[in-house]
């Protein structure tokens, strides 16, 4: 182990946290209830009765319903990614990102349906062609030009969120474009206030929509702006030293003030901005690669692009702006007994931190470390320390990837994924299993763990998703 590396150590007992499952149930129930409330308000404001008042009225009524549900989902989408700590702990970033995409696409499709149905309904009532009616609605109705601009911005966000587009965009570019969603939501509000019959139809409607808008805006301001600013000022993190761990792999050690008060656990990540020049405003998600209870924070970054490459050039004293901590790949899910960790490449970093924190007994922990070459194996010194001092069993699986979907290297691809896992970790069926790596590899490793007899609730994964 190098002189610059502090040995990992178990977390203090007070770091053990309670399960967030009740909060998850409450959150999911609240989202469902919000949709029921929207439909109930539409019914109370005469929506059902208008379905029998002729083709134009019925079409317009359905248009209002789709618009209301679209607005509700859009605001729920904002809340999902507002980084509210209770929601983060309950669901985890990867699940929230999936729901965020689902609600985003659903709300956009409903918004398009709202525009079409409202335009057709008004055109039928006024006996004019649809194109003319769309022009009149956009130009002459209060707030509609702003709503049209907001729709264009949301369309841009939706298009760039498609998988094909995301594969062609850098994370930094996608993140910048995605921020326009907030402006799109804000531009939609005036037309609801001025022309939205169901928005202003009753005191209950006004109370509900203003409350939901205030909650979404307040959550963004509090948890995307206020809390990160407070923690950045409070802890004043600065780069202490930068250490090359291997080819294209760099660790950054950060010191600061009151670090024991920073509510972070091994396995979590922050969004980092380093004040080192142009481009500092673009945040990057990096996990802690060491237990955060030693008075120093450490992240380890692989050179995968512009943002990660510049980390190697950071100088001591550079200030850091942080958002977080985020993530559920933590010890609060540990139930005691055997621990099996499956890491691929840079995915070893949060698992290494967890190995230092979890209170497993001697010989109860196994780390299966997947890498392409011997040179890409990081932290060998720390892993040897863990093997000597805490009895961790480390299994290296080296070589190029298999041609079939598998978590194994090509040299072992002829073997069963589950059987190979049982050979690497004989007690895996009774263990808590933690997995971190690329999406496809993680899915294959999770499937292998379940096939090897691990209860799905004891398989813990989290990927950074965007």
UniProtKB/TrEMBL annotation:
<keyword id="KW-0285">Flavoprotein</keyword>
<keyword id="KW-0472">Membrane</keyword>
<dbReference type="Pfam" id="PF00175">
    <property type="entry name" value="NAD_binding_1"/>
</dbReference>
<dbReference type="GO" id="GO:0046872">
    <property type="term" value="F:metal ion binding"/>
</dbReference>
<feature type="domain" description="FAD-binding FR-type">
    <location>
        <begin position="232"/>
        <end position="332"/>
    </location>
</feature>
<keyword id="KW-1133">Transmembrane helix</keyword>
<feature type="transmembrane region" description="Helical">
    <location>
        <begin position="207"/>
        <end position="227"/>
    </location>
</feature>
<dbReference type="InterPro" id="IPR039261">
    <property type="entry name" value="FNR_nucleotide-bd"/>
</dbReference>
<dbReference type="GO" id="GO:0016020">
    <property type="term" value="C:membrane"/>
</dbReference>
<dbReference type="GO" id="GO:0016491">
    <property type="term" value="F:oxidoreductase activity"/>
</dbReference>
<keyword id="KW-0812">Transmembrane</keyword>
<feature type="transmembrane region" description="Helical">
    <location>
        <begin position="177"/>
        <end position="195"/>
    </location>
</feature>
<feature type="transmembrane region" description="Helical">
    <location>
        <begin position="64"/>
        <end position="82"/>
    </location>
</feature>
<feature type="transmembrane region" description="Helical">
    <location>
        <begin position="102"/>
        <end position="124"/>
    </location>
</feature>
<keyword id="KW-0560">Oxidoreductase</keyword>
<feature type="transmembrane region" description="Helical">
    <location>
        <begin position="144"/>
        <end position="165"/>
    </location>
</feature>
<protein>
    <submittedName>
        <fullName>Ferric reductase-like transmembrane domain-containing protein</fullName>
    </submittedName>
</protein>
<dbReference type="InterPro" id="IPR017927">
    <property type="entry name" value="FAD-bd_FR_type"/>
</dbReference>
<keyword id="KW-0411">Iron-sulfur</keyword>
<keyword id="KW-0274">FAD</keyword>
<dbReference type="InterPro" id="IPR050415">
    <property type="entry name" value="MRET"/>
</dbReference>
<feature type="transmembrane region" description="Helical">
    <location>
        <begin position="21"/>
        <end position="44"/>
    </location>
</feature>
<dbReference type="GO" id="GO:0051537">
    <property type="term" value="F:2 iron, 2 sulfur cluster binding"/>
</dbReference>
<dbReference type="GO" id="GO:0050660">
    <property type="term" value="F:flavin adenine dinucleotide binding"/>
</dbReference>
<keyword id="KW-0408">Iron</keyword>
<dbReference type="InterPro" id="IPR013130">
    <property type="entry name" value="Fe3_Rdtase_TM_dom"/>
</dbReference>
<dbReference type="Pfam" id="PF01794">
    <property type="entry name" value="Ferric_reduct"/>
</dbReference>
<dbReference type="InterPro" id="IPR017938">
    <property type="entry name" value="Riboflavin_synthase-like_b-brl"/>
</dbReference>
<dbReference type="InterPro" id="IPR001433">
    <property type="entry name" value="OxRdtase_FAD/NAD-bd"/>
</dbReference>
<keyword id="KW-0001">2Fe-2S</keyword>
<keyword id="KW-0479">Metal-binding</keyword>
